[in-house]
User: Fold this.
Amino acid sequence: MTRTVPLFINGEFTPSSSSNTLPVLNPATQQELARVPLATHGEVEAAVASAKNAFSAWREVAVPERARLMLRYQHLLKQHHDEVAEILAQETGKTFADAKGDLWRGIEVVEHACNVPSLLMGETVENVAGGIDSYSLIQPLGVCVGITPFNFPAMIPLWMYPLAIACGNTFVLKPSEQDPLTPTRLAELAVEAGFPKGVLNVVHGGREAVDQLLTHPDVQAISFVGSVAVGQHIYRTGTNALKRVQAFAGAKNHMVVMPDANPRQVVSALVGASCGAAGQRCMAISVAVLVGKAKDLIPELQQQMAALRPGAWNDSGAAYGPVISKRAKERVLGLIEQGKKEGANCLLDGSRCTVDGYPDGNWIGPTLFTDVKPHMSIYREEIFGPVLCVVCVDTLDEAIALVNASPYGNGTSIFTASGGAARRYVHECTVGQVGVNVPIPVPLPFFSFTGWKGSFMGDLHAYGKQAVRFYTETKTVTSRWFDSDAVSGPNLTIAMK
Ligand code: NAD
Assistant:
């Protein structure tokens, strides 16, 4: 019998009373690591109540003290980096090195949250009218909710609650049911860092728990990261319930390769950005757009992709791990078959991949398609596997038109030696995050994570200054202090006097 993951409500790790549980499996072995409960209605209610109760005291805690809490938290996360990464690697199947990267990119956001006093500075204008000054205050919202995907069980929760809490809010996290052990460990470290009771809560569950949170009268804001279909549901339901919502969704990211780009750098970037984390990244490159003679790179690309060896989390030589579940594997294999049927040329087929010693792993080998056309399913759908589609075009104009016709706009990159081509691409592409000779341009947390089009629903993005605005309300104060008892008579106009 494996342990059942506890809920974290009002500072206590408590077992759920739900008999409805799901297995948490190691994707390389199918070993059951734990069971995750689907929290009951009453337990979700208790988590929100705990966050609501904690809010009135937490919002009064001095801002530098909230910053010190984040400093202690980032220190603990660094101290426990390898231990958390080991948990993360086992439940996601990521290689240990990539698991450490997942946590590290979250720690960077906690570091940014340590800067909260500066981030919460408002504005002041003296003398907006005779003897009147105006200033703005940045105030927390109340209870905020985060709903996170399986593919970054450390980084994405850490995109959300540290900054929300540093801003003075309290938080209920509903992590992915596929890898809840990492967020649970993050919550344990939050207790050790000194998070007061109720400031952070963690509940587990699926659609029912999420819908309860989305429509709960005491919830003010919802951050979601996950698939397009669920994101649209979250955005619609949350905004209908008059919540502030940001929903980061799926993607289909293109890398444009100009003929003047350095071939070795291009191939190396394409291999890493398409197959790293078994392609299960919302910023993975899944389409290579080769312009003109750049198509001559295909044989070298094929050779280097073929040399990649997937393996288990504890295999230091593995290039990447299995996909998260049998279901995810079936879906990717279905798309690979569909690609062949629709007429793409499958130069490398990873469908029958095996790994010695791990007969039950959800393995998919590196897969490369050429002659891909925009109407094909492998071009249109997010595959979320180690599959790269190559599209050849003649000009940069065609490449830009192709990228801009995509309904998604999460990330893109251009590889070129020409500043002119790069500048034009950066200026004209309708994608929120652009890399110039950088294949996966995930911004550091002093910027924001700024997906566009179908990859994002909402107004304000994740982390950085935009997240501070998302998790706060601005109050503008107009203030006059009389220095005499003189009365100038009623002002019957709207003009300020
Ligand atoms: P998912 O949408 O299946 O699940 C995300 C979260 O929503 C989980 O917590 C899950 O329990 C919950 N959920 C699932 N079905 C639900 C429903 N019907 N109603 C309410 N909640 C539901 O996503 P996933 O498979 O865990 O993650 C992979 C997806 O996330 C990919 O599409 C990827 O591109 C996307 N993603 C996007 C970003 C980004 O920043 N744009 C980052 C990471 C992942």
Summary: The mean pLDDT is 97. Residues 147-152, 174, 176-177, 206-207, 210, 225-227, 230, 233, 248-251, 282, 382, 384, 410, 451, 455 surround nicotinamide-adenine-dinucleotide (CB under 6 Å). The chain has two domains: 7-249+455-477, 253-436. The first strand starts at residue 7 and ends at 9.
